[in-house]
Amino acid sequence: MGVLTTRITDLFGIEHPIIQEGMGPYRTVELAAAVSNAGGLGTVSMPGMTQPPDTGARIMREHIEQMATLTSAPFAVNVPVGRDPSGTVLPVSEAYIKAVIAAREADGALASQLRVLTTSAGFPGEFRPLIADSGLLHMHKVGATAQARKAENAGVDVIIASGYEMGGHTHVKPMHTFVLVPNVTEAVSVPVVLSGGARDGRTLAAALALGAAGVAMGTRFIATRDNTSWHPAYAQKILAAQEGDDVVFPAVYGPARGLRNRGVQQLLDIVASGQLQGDELTQWKDERLIQAQSAGDVEDGLVPAGQVASAISELVAVAEFVPQMAREAAGILQQLVAGISPARLS
Ligand SMILES: Cc1cc2nc3c(=O)[nH]c(=O)nc-3n(C[C@H](O)[C@H](O)[C@H](O)COP(=O)(O)O)c2cc1C
Fold first, then answer.
1. Phi and psi for 194 in degrees, rounded to 5?
2. Given the DSSP bridges, would you call strands 246-250 and 255-259 parallel, antiparallel or unpaired?
3. Which one of 18, 139, 166, 230 would you pick to mutate in the ligand 1 pocket, going by the greatest count of ligand atoms within 8 A of its CB?
């Protein structure tokens, strides 16, 4: 048991209420294993939305199986749920959900570790019965209180409430973490996890004070020594970022937040001129995302990251960072409690 017990540490069987979220289309197997081994909940990311569903599902299955060789602790898998213009769930999203379930069905030991499916982007209402019957805990990421209510009504086990300052795909209607999270914790009774701007023990303590049961982070975990699948230039770009260096640009499902560079400017120019559209434009974006992460071209590639990049100035080792973050939060809470005069409370 860790220093902080919350509803999600109990539900997920983890030591610390700290989650590394999905960061597709990039590989996060090594990072996720480090987070799970450190007592948090690591997440295997989806490997891309533009490849054939069979190929995507095969890669995801491989990542899940590799993850199980690197940790014996609980972990999650993230599937963003896209829909076509008619409202049908994209074949690739469906293939990912089914790949997660198939991986569990094929291996009982793996199933006991792969406890959580985190869906994001759209809500996979039509897949709720399948997910519930599979025995997976279903966590769903939202950017608005109405979406949280809808997910809870559909039977979701945990809500991630992610504020507009988050890295990667963000929300069309900007709701910032400090307003969104208490709105959501008031509106639903399932556990809520704060996401968007978290980075240390102070932000974890603040999340708990807002009624959340833990935090989920993307950007902070990119700049770690354990993120070995990514080109080091990506983390260096985050370390160098200052306030105001982030920008929201049109990404695959909607707006995404990343670091301002030539790649973003080229994207804005292409969109404004209509030079590329539809699948061609999506393909261009996907290639630029990979260009930054795999080749380390953080000037012409696209570099998703949150506003919190401006507050991250050193690479950390996950094995030390995760328990230290929980201890720091617990210490802050203890100190705050010590300042309370019980006699004056009532
Ligand atoms: C590089 C990058 C890729 C991301 N890809 C995904 C993704 O595939 N699916 C998803 O649900 N969220 C994705 N996100 C969002 C994160 O899961 C998370 O919600 C966000 O990073 C939280 O905000 P923070 O960056 O302030 O910690 C991505 C974020 C980043 C920075």
1. -85, 135
2. antiparallel
3. 166
Please give the structure tokens belonging to residue 12.
């997920």
The angle at the Cα of 259, spanning 247 to 265, to the nearest 5 degrees, equals 70
Note the pLDDT of residue 250: 92
Measured in Å, residue 227 CA sits from the centre of ligand 1 at: 14
- Which of 2, 8, 20 lies closest to 223 in space, CA to CA? 20
- The atom number, within ligand 1, closest to the CA of 141 reads 11
Please give the structure tokens belonging to residue 44: 């295997």
Give 100-124 pLDDT, tens digit per residue: 999 999 999 999 999 999 999 999 9
| pTM of the complete model | 0.97
Kindly list the distances between the CA atom of residue 249 and the CA atoms of 168, 180, 202, 273, 290, in Å, as whole numbers in the listed order: 10, 22, 29, 15, 16
Beta strands in 163-286 (DSSP E): 168-169, 192-195, 215-217, 246-250, 255-259
**How many angstroms separate the alpha carbon of residue 164 from the centre of ligand 1?**
11
Count the neighbouring beta carbons within 10 Å of the beta carbon of residue 281: 17
Report CA(97)–ligand 1 centroid distance (Å): 18
Distance (Å, rounded) from C-alpha 64 to C-alpha 254?
Answer: 27
